Amino acid sequence: MNVQQTVEQLQKTPALYRIQVIELLLQSLKEEIAENESSLANWRPFQVRTFDLGSNVLPDRDEIYSDRGA
Asked: Which parts of the chain have pLDDT scores under 50?
């Protein structure tokens, strides 16, 4: 069943059942958000250290990707 068919099926469904579907979707989204937030709890910011190569370096894209082949 594709999305359009699902929407059409839901439009024909009584409001009480559509509300239950919405509540189930909302619960699923809340759980997914909670999982993502818990994985971010271990995230730590990082420090970027700058350095000077002594001159302005202009990278050559063709040279950088030449080892990948055509």
From this structure: none
